[in-house]
Design goal:
Elements: H1 2-16, E1 20-23, H2 38-49, E2 60-64, E3 68-71, E4 75-78, E5 81-87, E6 90-93, E7 102-107, E8 110-115, E9 119-121, E10 141-146, E11 152-154, E12 157-159, E13 166-169, E14 174-181, E15 191-206, E16 212-229, E17 236-239, E18 246-259, E19 263-269, E20 275-290, E21 292-297, E22 314-327, E23 335-338, E24 345-357, E25 365-368, E26 370-373
Parallel strand pairs: 1-2, 2-5, 3-6, 4-7, 5-8, 6-9, 7-10, 8-11, 9-12, 10-13, 11-14, 12-14, 13-15, 14-15, 15-16, 16-18, 17-19, 18-20, 19-21, 20-22, 21-23, 22-24, 23-25, 24-26
Main location: secreted
Family: Belongs to the glycosyl hydrolase 28 family.
GO cellular component, one term: extracellular region
Length: 381
Amino acid sequence: MALSKFLLALAAASGAFAAKTCNVLNYGGVADNSTDIAPAIMSAYTNCVAGSTTSNPADTVLLVPSGTYALQTAVTLTNVADFTIEIDGALNLVFNASLTGTLFSFDDCNNIVWQGSGTIYGHGDLWRPGGNLGTYPSRPRLVRFQNCNNVDMSGVTLNNSPMFHVTIIGNNNVAHNMQIVADHIGETDGFDMSGNNNYVHDVSVENGDECVTVKTPTDGFVAENIQCFYSAGCNIGSFGNNVTGVTVQNIYYKNITQHNGDGGIVLKSYPTASGLVKNATYIDFTFTNIAYPIQVSDFWCPNEACPPTTGNLTWEDITFSSITGTGDNSTRPIIDVECISGYECTGIVFENVDLTKEDGVTATITVSNACGSGLSQLPAC
């Protein structure tokens, strides 16, 4: 009898800690590809998730189950923590010329899990008629974690956002085991990361802009096992006109495969930016048909002439190791290092770098205002 009572008490205690599921279908959601799912997601959070969380995000799950849904307005969650949002359905963003901002925005959050087997379809081509990026310049982005820590993002496929796909700003965040697929056009960034000790691994990005890129400020970032298709590279920057206080350090990329892209590894800035980028390592990269395989440039001014040099951005201790493959068949250099006179790039190291050009085009290397080792064009510091 005593044992039976103990087992019953144990079962009751276990039940008390069972995961709570807040299904959007119970809060106004309809899987009819017509009714806006955003209000139901917000209602499920407000009326079910809020006040029910524990320190374990697996204990409280906001669920968008399988089915096809319309997404017409934004989901904005501020000062939230300790829950899982699971998207197993297909969400179709409905075109609206006046829609701006971010469709899924988490501000000042902590310990959030984003997961699921579903897909968010951004239908970005509708905001870029004829490939024109200027028709709707304030078109929406898909997912943003702003001032968020300890986020775990995985699973959900992001398809063709009108603008950038994922922005994560904060510390100790991870994005992994997920896919981004978009048109091969600019302003379709895959992952834009900033903060301290963030990690991106085992992701695939097909787009026409940044694949997995580091922004300022960052101290500690790791990217591993990344596949990029038609992208503009795994980069640092860019740092725009007159940006000050750039601080990026302790960056590590490993096992990256890139196909048919504008950029491979591009460290880029306007000549008016100021600050320091230090201790970045790129190892085990494979390139196929990349326009700029390796580029370090303080004169990266897309679509315009660079302004006069007034900045002092410095690049220090940058290592490129075990990098193979091909640049495209243009006359662009396979390696281009161009730094500011008086603020030379120092400690630029090339180890086991074997790059050629497609179609037998002669490979060239250009270096100015930099020192390091591993290239005959690069003087010792």
